[in-house]
Q: What sequence folds into this?
């Protein structure tokens, strides 16, 4: 007998976790002398009140779908990949090199090659921590954190010494050629007669992200590899008994994870900035952790959680324009979501389970 | 049983321990139901029952690990609350757990004083403990080097350290939970001498076990538990093993399994000079040679930790080794680099592992996914090149669960929701139904209820009768003796010798398990 | 490189090693009790902010110290509740606390000082001032030993000496006291401690409290000793480097001193020499900045020998049935 119905596990508990995180964030806003209700209203109107707002919300959500899926796949293999941030940075480098140095006839070809470039670079950045974990037992959590710092230095070096436009003081690459510019949602919807904000950066990458959700779902729950990844994540010892190679699973899961993080760059670097800049990832790699935890490591959950964080991100930006509340509010919310869904899960789960058990008892007796 | 059971005549001395009406439930499971028991000081009281009968829960309540839902505890006639281990220690209760509670990288001395240091500084406590260990050693035959590190000591010695810990805490009631599980018969005899000595000094001892022999040999009184209830308390001298066994399981048990004589055929498995060194650099297999023929069950007897697990690991394909293994005459790759459990299965080796929860099953996976575990590459479970055929897997699982009487027969239930016996049936169904040439079986009935034991034994014998080879590893001598057609005894990574079950007995096997070579090996 | 330069670099290494050492010892107490503490970074950051903020507002560095340590203790408390009481995932809890520190310091800092997350620069009584050791002036001219004593060892703030004193003190507490015995036991085999009648929970909370205080001091030193005020993300991965040093040090106090001094030295060299010209090629500044992290990975990869962590590390203690 399960202690509570499945819907409570997948919906009610994340909702309660989120509620607590929001209430606490509200108290923080109150403490710095702002009105949390007004702040929420401002976030909603800023993020969802116009197609411009929606455009940004979906743009951010696209980033978070990639990084959320990335963290989820690694989680399923019992790897806690905190390196999404660095993998996305290096992935951005891959996308930039592809866009800058390969002449493309059409954006669609450019997109496919850039996806590969971002994924390969991101995956490469995950391979060393993966190998060290699989072969030498070095904890992947700490090595991936270190690789985030190292990635920042690598990117800095590449932008300052290699990719910087001559004569410019700005550590950024030159603009990508016209043929690599991705169509935005405005461009896609206009022929259908639907008007959408021209200024919003949401672009065709959103659909790639949605496809990624489906592919990851099929991979994890319908394929042999997914079966092996899930089995390994739940019990490495039993997996060895079943002929599943831990080395193979660790490497593959981390490569997929790093690849997805790196692929995020088709959205921010190729789709939005259209050049490589220093802080293009903007913490999306870290938000992936919160998204994966909230989404219960399931692609559909990740999608919903990514939308939520897209909303928070865009709403938070609006907020910082009009109030004293800085954008970093989102980091606080993200931290609280990770804390309550990831580490303090039992705090909410315990009482909820007891309520359901008592309810079941009363109905039975 | 409502009244506290009285043993023999009215005693004038208050019982050392008396429990009245103890009940404890874990969620819907009633682990202890209205248990009453009374133990006289200066006696050895046995508590016997099958795995899962509630013995350990009862003792955990006595030691303050769990709080009983109902009931009272009296120590020397005084009602005592035992909310935690501290209170149990204060009440004079010492506990020797089945799995030792020792800090591995500490010395014996440090383990002994842990929790009962005399002050904030360690030095004085250590020197005081050193003196009292010396006198305890002389008094009770408990000799241990106080400065030895725990990780360097053998199990027999570790058990003595646990007893010393209890005595150092001035326990006068000592509870031992399955103390002989990891001991050779000789070490067990040594333990019993120590326990007798403690009783003679007036200590009260409670011995929890599922082995009838121990009860008969050392206890004064014995209580039988079954499914959370105390079914009887009798004087040991007034009872016999058959009667106790019946009380334990609630009906007559067949200690021997019915089977026709084996008709051994060709050699399926041949092992020559197999050697294996583990991750810590310890040689665990020291030149094993043996073979198993088609249509026979070879039983490997031995105290756990003498290399049997490693032998299964090497055969199952997840440990490197040197030497030679042939299956149907073909050499197996033992290097570990190009061979794994998957390739072993492809060679017709199926494996019921020793620990089904750690190895045989993914506890969070539903039964249907566990039914293909290890065989998930099999063509019949694939829908196309990329995806697996979930519907087919469900169908196969449902069919096997029905035929193997897995209860409840619901393939969507997670493995962890099944009882031990039903979990084991899932594993056995999965492995046997692949019609392997060789079946490896480790501890097939550990933590499995009697009904499932008979069923699983039947399946193993049926497989043998179909002309397949079976390699059985078990620490239960009774199981080895009743199932095997041939018995090999392992000790310290060696095969001590082989015997035929009808030409040997527990005594001889026990000596071999302790490393004493017998004469007249089966050639 | 002349002797004076060496002394200067060594002096700078000692300063830079101080927050690492305090954080490393914090991690040592935590992990020896069986609790992974990825959140050292966040605790340093929170403490750095609150110490600087309170010192700036009140003018007293001592009040700043109290505020810094208190904030670090609060973070430790949350980590304890998550990983001890509710048996949550210690890594996730640590990660969450790191983000919390990142966000909340900027959030509160912006609202408090309107400097975009910085605190005002600290000066005078808002900072810890250098302490001259006895006879520092008198022996300054003695060759070799003189400069070592008066320039390298003397003239640091009180927290540097506190950090150095913490090394023998930690050793003594761990290996010579009842508390230390129990603490080490609880990180190896909590069941042994529990059955011996000692509260696992209380011991682990105690270790969290010690870690909180030590990490707090690291943050206080960072903002009021090493630097003069708080800037965004000023911990800059020091908590993670301290963790690496802890592994390098095999969870032993004296080794922790040597490991953190090594990392301090690296940072000092990187600070002093931007691009290092090796003749054949030039090591770019970015490489020097990344060096501590690269070194950490190399150490983690076990090229400094394999390390055996406390056995019960990372596992919440659940009584078995």
A:
């Amino acid at each position: 007998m399960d202690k509570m119905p499945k819907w409570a596990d997948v919906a009610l508990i994340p909702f309660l976790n989120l509620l607590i995180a929001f209430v606490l964030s509200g108290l923080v806003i109150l403490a710095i002398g702002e009105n949390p209700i007004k702040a929420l209203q401002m976030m909603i109107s800023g993020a969802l009140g116009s197609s411009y707002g929606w455009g940004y919300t979906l743009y951010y959500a696209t980033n978070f779908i990639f990084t959320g899926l990335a963290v989820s796949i690694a989680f399923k293999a019992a790897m806690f990949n905190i390196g999404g941030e660095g993998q996305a940075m290096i992935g951005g480098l891959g996308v930039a090199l592809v866009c800058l140095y390969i002449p493309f006839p059409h954006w669609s070809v450019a997109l496919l090659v850039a996806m590969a470039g971002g994924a390969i670079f991101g995956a490469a950045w995950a391979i060393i921590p993966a190998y060290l974990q699989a072969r030498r037992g070095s904890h992947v959590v700490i090595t991936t954190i270190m690789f985030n710092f190292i990635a920042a230095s690598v990117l800095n070096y590449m932008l300052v010494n290699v990719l910087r436009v001559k004569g410019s003081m700005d550590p950024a690459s030159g603009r990508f050629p016209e043929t690599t510019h991705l169509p935005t949602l405005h461009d896609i919807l206009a022929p259908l007669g639907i008007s959408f904000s021209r200024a919003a950066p949401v672009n065709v990458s959103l659909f790639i992200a949605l496809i990624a959700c489906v592919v990851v779902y099929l991979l994890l729950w319908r394929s042999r590899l997914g079966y092996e990844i899930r089995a390994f994540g739940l019990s490495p010892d039993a997996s060895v008994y079943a002929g599943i190679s831990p080395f193979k699973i660790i490497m593959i899961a981390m490569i997929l994870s790093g690849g997805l993080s790196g692929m995020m760059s088709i959205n921010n670097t190729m789709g939005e900035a259209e050049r490589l800049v220093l802080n293009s990832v903007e913490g999306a790699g870290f938000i992936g952790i919160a998204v994966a935890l909230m989404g219960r490591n399931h692609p559909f959950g990740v999608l919903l959680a990514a939308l939520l964080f897209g909303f928070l991100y865009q709403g938070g930006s609006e907020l910082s324009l009009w109030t004293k509340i800085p954008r970093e509010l989102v980091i606080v919310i993200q931290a609280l979501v990770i804390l309550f869904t990831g580490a303090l899960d039992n705090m909410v789960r315990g009482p909820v389970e007891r309520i359901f058990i008592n309810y079941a008892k009363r109905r039975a007796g | 049983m409502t009244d506290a059971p009285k043993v023999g005549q009215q005693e004038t001395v208050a019982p050392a321990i008396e429990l009245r009406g103890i009940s404890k439930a874990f969620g819907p499971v009633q682990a202890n139901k209205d248990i009453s028991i009374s133990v006289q000081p200066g006696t050895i009281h046995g508590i016997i029952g099958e795995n899962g009968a509630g013995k350990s829960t009862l003792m955990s309540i006595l030691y303050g690990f769990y709080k009983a839902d109902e009931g009272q505890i009296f120590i020397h006639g005084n009602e005592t609350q035992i909310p935690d281990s501290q209170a149990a220690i204060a009440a004079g209760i010492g506990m020797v757990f089945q799995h030792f509670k020792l800090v591995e990288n500490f010395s014996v001395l440090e383990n002994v004083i842990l929790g009962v240091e005399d002050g904030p500084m360690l030095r004085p406590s250590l020197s005081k403990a050193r003196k009292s260990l010396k006198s305890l050693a002389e008094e009770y035959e408990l000799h241990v080097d106080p400065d030895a590190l725990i990780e360097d000591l053998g199990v027999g010695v570790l058990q003595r350290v646990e007893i010393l810990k209890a005595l150092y805490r001035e326990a006068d009631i000592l509870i031992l939970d399955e103390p002989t599980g990891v001991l050779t018969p000789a070490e067990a005899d040594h333990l019993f001498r120590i326990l007798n000595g403690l009783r003679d000094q007036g200590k009260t001892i409670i011995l929890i076990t599922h082995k009838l022999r121990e009860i008969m040999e050392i206890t004064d009184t014995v209580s039988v538990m079954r499914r959370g209830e105390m079914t009887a308390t009798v004087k040991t001298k007034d009872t016999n093993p058959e009667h106790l066994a019946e009380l334990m399981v609630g009906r007559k048990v067949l200690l021997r399994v019915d089977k026709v004589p084996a008709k051994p055929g060709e050699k399926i498995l041949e092992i020559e000079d197999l050697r294996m060194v583990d991750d810590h650099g310890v040689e665990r297999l020291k030149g094993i040679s043996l073979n198993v023929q088609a249509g026979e069950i070879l039983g490997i007897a031995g105290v756990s930790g003498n290399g049997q697990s490693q032998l299964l690991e090497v055969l199952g394909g997840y440990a490197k080794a040197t030497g030679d293994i042939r299956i149907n005459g073909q050499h197996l790759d033992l290097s570990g680099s190009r061979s794994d459990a998957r390739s072993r299965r492809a060679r017709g080796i199926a494996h019921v592992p020793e620990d089904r929860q750690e190895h045989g099953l993914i506890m969070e996976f539903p039964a249907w996914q566990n039914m293909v575990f290890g065989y998930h590459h099999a063509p019949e479970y694939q829908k196309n090149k990329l995806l697996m055929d979930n519907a087919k897997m469900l169908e196969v699982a449902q069919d096997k669960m029905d035929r193997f009487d897995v209860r409840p027969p619901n393939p969507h239930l997670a493995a962890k929701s099944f009882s031990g016996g039903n979990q084991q049936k899932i594993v056995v169904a999965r492995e046997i139904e692949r019609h392997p040439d060789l079946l490896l079986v480790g501890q097939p009935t550990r933590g499995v209820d009697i009904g499932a034991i008979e069923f699983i034994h039947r399946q193993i014998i049926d497989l043998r009768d179909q002309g397949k080879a079976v390699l059985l590893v078990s620490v239960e001598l009774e199981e080895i003796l009743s199932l095997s057609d041939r018995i090999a005894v392992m000790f310290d990574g060696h095969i001590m010798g082989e015997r035929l079950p009808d030409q040997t007995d527990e005594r001889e096997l026990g000596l071999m398990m302790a490393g004493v070579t017998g004469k007249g090996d089966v050639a | 490189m002349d002797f004076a330069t060496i002394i200067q670099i060594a002096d700078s290494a000692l300063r830079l090693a101080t927050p690492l050492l305090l954080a490393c010892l914090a991690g040592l107490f935590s992990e020896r009790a069986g609790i992974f503490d990825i959140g050292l970074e966040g605790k340093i950051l929170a403490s750095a902010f609150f110490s600087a903020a309170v010192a700036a507002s009140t003018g007293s560095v001592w009040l700043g110290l109290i505020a810094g340590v208190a904030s670090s203790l609060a973070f430790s408390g949350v980590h304890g509740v998550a990983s001890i009481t509710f048996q949550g995932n210690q890594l996730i809890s640590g990660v969450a606390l790191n983000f919390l520190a990142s966000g909340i310091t900027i959030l509160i800092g912006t609202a408090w000082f309107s400097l975009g997350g910085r605190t005002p620069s600290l000066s005078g009584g808002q900072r810890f001032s250098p302490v001259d050791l006895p006879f520092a002036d008198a022996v300054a001219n003695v060759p070799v030993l003189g400069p070592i004593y008066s320039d390298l060892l003397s003239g640091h703030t009180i927290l540097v000496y506190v950090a150095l004193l913490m090394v023998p003190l930690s050793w003594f507490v761990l290996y010579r006291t009842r508390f230390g015995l129990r603490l080490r036991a609880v990180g190896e085999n909590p069941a042994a401690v529990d059955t011996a009648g000692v509260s696992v929970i209380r011991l682990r909370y105690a270790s969290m409290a010690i870690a909180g205080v030590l990490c707090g001091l690291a943050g206080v030193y960072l903002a009021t000793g090493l630097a003069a005020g708080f800037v965004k993300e000023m911990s800059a991965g020091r908590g993670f480097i301290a963790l690496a040093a802890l592994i390098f040090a095999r969870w032993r106090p004296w080794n922790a001193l040597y490991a953190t001094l090594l990392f301090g030295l690296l940072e000092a060299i990187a600070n002093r020499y931007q691009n290092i010209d090796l003749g054949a090629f030039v090591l770019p500044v970015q490489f020097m900045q990344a060096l501590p992290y690269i070194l950490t990975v190399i150490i983690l990869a076990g090229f400094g020998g394999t390390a055996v962590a406390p056995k019960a590390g990372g596992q919440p203690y659940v009584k078995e049935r």
Observations:
- The mean pLDDT of chain A is 92.
- Chain A touches chain B through 22 residues (CB under 8 Å).
- The two ends of chain A are 16 Å apart (CA to CA).
- Residues 60-301 of chain A form one domain.
